[in-house]
Amino acid sequence: NSTNNTTEKLNNKERKMARLPPDSFSQMIASIAVVFGVIALILACVGIGTPRWYSAFVSTGTGTYAKTNSANFFYTCDVSTSGVTNNCTNRDSSLYGYPGYSSSNAWMTDYNQRMQNAGSLCIVGILFLTFGIVATSIMALRYFSAWATSIPPALFFLACLFMLAGMAEGARYLLYNDYSANLYQTAHLLTMFALALTAFAAGRVHFSRRTEAGHNTPHNVA
Fold first, then answer.
1. Half-sphere exposure of residue 147, counting CA atoms within 13 Å on the CB side?
2. Strand, helix or coil at 22?
3. What CATH number belongs to 22-52+110-212?
4. What CA–CA distance (Å, rounded) separates 113 from 101?
5. Under a CB-based contact definition with an 8 Å cutoff, are residues 129 and 88 in contact?
6. Closest C-alpha among 194, 184, 188 to residue 43
7. Angle at 209 between CA 203 and CA 214, to 5 degrees
8. Residues 81-86: what's their mean pLDDT?
9. Where along the chain do its domains lie?
10. Residues 12-51: pLDDT tens digits?
11. On the CB side of 135, how many CA atoms lie within 13 Å of its CA?
C-alpha cells in the first residue's frame, strides 16, 4: 500500500508539473459559453448605443400611430414620419426632448440622475461581460489553478448583476418598448446562459486540479 501511494503521489506531481489544459469536454463547454458571451456582448453594445429604448407615439387619426421620438439613457432623437431618426440631443439635467418628461411633475425631478445611474451600471455590466469572455477563453485553452477557476463565473455573475441593476434603474423612467431595449435584455439572458455554462466548466476544471494535487484521492487505511 505504501508503495502504491508513493507511486500515485509521484504521478500526481508529474501531472501537476505538466500543467495540462482542461479536458476536451470542459473546453467544449467553456467554448460554448464564450460563444454565448460574444453574442451577448454584440447585442449589448448595439442595444446600449442605439436610441430605441423608449419610443413615443401619437395617433394619426386614422386608427394608426406614428412614432415621434425615441430615447435611451444618454440621448434622445426625433423620428420623422418616414421613420428616419434625426436631430439627436444629448441628455442634460432638464431632460430636454425626452418623451413624457415634464419638470412640473414633482416625481420626475430625479429622472436625470436615474438615467445617469442606469447608463453607468449598464456599461459596467458590459465591461464585466467582456472580462468574463476573456477569462473563460483563457481557462479553456491554458492551465488554470484550482483557486483561479472561480474568476470566470464570478465575472459573468457580476455582469448579470450590473446589467440587471442598470435596466431596473432605467425602468424608473423609460418604458422599454422598442428594439434597443430588447437587444440589451436578450444580451442579459445570454449572459446568464454563459454564466451557467462557465460555472459548470469551471467546476470540472477545479475538480480536475484538486485531483491532480491529490486532494480528491481516497487513501487506503491499512
1. 0
2. coil
3. 1.20.120
4. 14
5. no
6. 184
7. 125
8. 74
9. 22-52+110-212
10. 555 544 566 667 888 899 999 999 999 999 999 999 999 8
11. 24
Contacts of 123 (CB under 8 A, 6+ apart): 48, 166
Q: Which of 180, 220, 190, 168 is nearest to 39 (CA)?
A: 190
- What lies within 8 Å, CB to CB, of 175 at 6+ separation is 54, 100
At residue 19, φ and ψ (nearest 5 deg) are 50, 60
Return the closest-CA partner of residue 172 out of 97, 100, 98, 118.
118
139-176 pLDDT, tens digit per residue, is: 888 777 777 888 999 999 999 999 999 999 999 888 89
Q: CA quadruple 174, 178, 181, 185: dihedral positive or negative?
A: positive
Distance between the two ends of the chain, CA-based, in angstroms? 8
